[in-house]
Design brief:
alpha/beta, Rossmann fold, eleven-stranded mixed β-sheet, three-stranded mixed β-sheet, 15% strand, globular
Length: 592
């Protein structure tokens, strides 16, 4: 049992000589009048609260991140009453915990900020048991319940946070505030907290670096396969077409577009034009009451999920209060604008293969379940370009910006493990390789295969997995303990040098088995400009201007991590590279 500021909690003995406390509330349930409000402090309880099971995940469309069977993908799952966290600690008495002051690692789960749950990551306990860390994981509001900005929701007495639209971001800040107030009772040092996350969890770690409200709540950060996407308030609020007096267009799932869809679904408007007219005539209080009264099922009804039940809606909003009113990457160009704590940033060599491996543009499904690559050469070429773009935009550009701003404590890595078992026809080493999310099991020391989404782990590849896992977990926990990765566990590995402007010197850590060259420092350079040049000059695409232009569009117009070019750029590129067909036909018919 442990005593928190809210009351006593009872945990349990978990695997690998650990204790666990699950489903601890860090904020009031954001329901009813608290839907789309900043999180409120939770109330105290009397007696002893049993913390023996994970809470419900946040409301979402169920999919692979909830480990549901495919027949249930796309169905409503989770609860609005989701603001809980979990604590894993080495086994010790309450008295020992009070004196322990162990480093704290705060994990933010991924899932495109529209799916996922902290409950997936039970193997976080391994860092507690083997490395003597206190590890915390938290649920936070997702999708249109986590990030939503509708002017009519504003009320007298609202704070800037209430009006920000960044509710998922605020949830994570509230969870970190809980850590500051309570983690000492579990054996943690509130003055030594490392925030780390993967994919959308990496993006949300960037928001912790960028938010002035998170200042002082953590001392280090690790970003695994992060994105840097953020949205203007116009994208979050406006109709999708240009508005009166040149008002910029909004996102397809902006609050105005969703409001139109909800009114039509409820039969209150016959079509979109009628819905817009009705909205223009409705008092703000009526609009607020209407949307707060909708069920979660009704809220998500207009959403068309992608292949993994993710969906693209405005999240990480440039509101000017929770986050600076500028694109997220720009925040890191000025050291005064962000929390300049030591950071590790990295990506996987084959990030994008996860999203290609079930994409009918690239594979055909045999018996509905077995993916076979349509064209292996094309598959590898597109994966290499798209994954390199993810690295450039998600890791290297922010690292370079931090360096230029005067922040030197930046380390960068790439994960290269690809020793999947050989399976005829499927060829997992080609189909997946070092794909997105594969690194998580290695960081968490998961040698038992608890977190093995691709069924890649076998007895035969166990020695190599252990080698890479020992390196990554060792560097990660050493960084959490000391603020620098150093030479890894026991000082036996390569000295991980800081990222630097000198491109002629080794500055990137590569994680791989000895058979793949081992964990080592390498010379590395990559940028969006270099990728554009490489694509334009790629001899493999000579004589195939359509594929060259298609790949340009995928990379620089339509990808969530690299798409910043205007549509006219593709037309100009097509003209310059000899493609005479309609550029509209280059847009993928299927996009995750």
């Amino acid at each position: 049992m442990r005593s928190t500021t809210l009351g006593d909690v009872l945990g349990f003995d978990d695997r690998h000589q650990t204790h666990a406390w699950l489903g601890l509330p860090y904020a009031q349930p954001p329901v009813g009048p608290l839907r789309w409000k900043a999180p409120r402090p939770p109330g105290r309880w009397s007696g002893v609260r049993e913390a023996l099971a994970f809470s419900q995940p946040a409301v979402q469309l169920g999919g692979i991140t909830l480990e549901l069977p495919p027949a249930q993908w796309g169905r409503l799952a989770g609860s609005e009453d989701c603001l809980t966290l979990n604590v894993f600690a080495p086994r010790m008495t309450a008295a020992e915990a009070q004196a322990a002051a162990l480093p704290v690692m705060f994990w933010i789960h991924g899932g495109a900020n529209s799916a996922g749950t902290a409950a997936t990551y039970t193997t976080l306990r391994n860092l507690a048991g083997q490395d003597r860390m206190i590890v915390v994981s938290a649920n936070y509001r997702l999708g249109i319940l986590g990030w939503f900005s509708l002017e009519e929701l504003a009320q007298d007495g609202d704070t800037g946070a209430d009006r920000s639209g960044n509710f998922g971001t605020l949830d994570l800040i509230a969870a970190l505030q809980w850590v500051r107030s309570n983690i000492a009772a579990f054996g943690g040092d509130p003055r030594n907290v490392t925030v780390f996350g993967e994919s959308a969890g990496g993006l949300n770690t960037y928001t912790m670096l960028a938010s002035p409200l998170a200042t002082g709540l953590f001392q280090r950060a690790i970003l695994q396969s992060p994105l840097t996407a953020s949205y203007t308030m116009a994208q979050a609020r406006n109709y999708a077409e240009e508005g009166p007096e040149g008002a910029p267009p909004g996102h397809a799932l902006s609050s105005r577009e969703l409001l139109c869809a909800w009114l039509q679904r409820d039969g209150r408007a016959a079509d979109r034009a009628a819905a817009k007219a009705l909205i223009a005539s409705m008092p703000a209080a009526d609009i607020a009451a209407y949307v707060r009264g909708l069920s979660p099922e009704a809220l998500l009804a207009p959403v068309k999920p992608g292949s993994l039940s993710f969906y693209d809606a405005p999240c990480v909003l440039q509101d000017g209060h929770v986050l600076p009113a500028m694109p997220l990457p720009e925040v890191f160009t000025d050291r005064r604008r962000y929390n300049a704590v030591p950071v590790i940033i990295g990506t996987n060599r084959d990030e994008y293969k996860l999203f290609m491996s079930n994409n009918p543009d690239y594979v055909r499904m045999v018996f509905g379940t077995i993916p076979l690559m349509r064209d292996r050469v094309r598959y590898q070429r597109h994966a290499a370009y798209m994954s390199a773009l993810w690295q450039a935009a998600g890791a290297l550009e922010p690292a370079n910006a931090m360096l230029a701003s005067g922040h030197r404590d930046v380390w960068v890595y790439r994960f290269d493990w690809d020793e999947q078992p050989a399976i005829p026809l499927i060829a997992p080493r080609v189909l997946l390789g070092a794909a997105h999310v594969l690194d998580v099991a290695f960081v968490f020391r998961d040698l038992d295969g608890e977190f093995d989404p691709f069924r890649s782990f076998t007895g035969a590849n166990l020695p190599g997995r252990k080698e890479v896992s020992d390196a990554m977990a060792g560097y990660w926990t050493g960084f959490a303990r000391h603020g620098r990765p150093g030479r890894g566990p026991g000082g036996m590995l390569a000295d991980w040098w800081r990222w630097s402007e000198d491109t002629s010197q080794p500055r990137l850590m590569v994680f791989d088995t000895s058979a793949g060259g081992g964990s080592r420092m390498v010379v590395h350079e990559n940028s969006r400009a270099a990728l554009k040049a490489a694509l334009a000059q790629d001899p493999a695409l000579d004589g195939n201007p359509r594929e060259r232009c298609e790949l340009f569009g995928r990379m620089f117009l339509w990808s969530i991590f690299g798409g910043q070019e205007a549509p006219q750029a593709l037309a100009a590129y097509a003209l310059a590279h000899g493609y005479a067909g309609p550029t509209e036909q280059l847009r993928p018919g299927y996009w995750p």
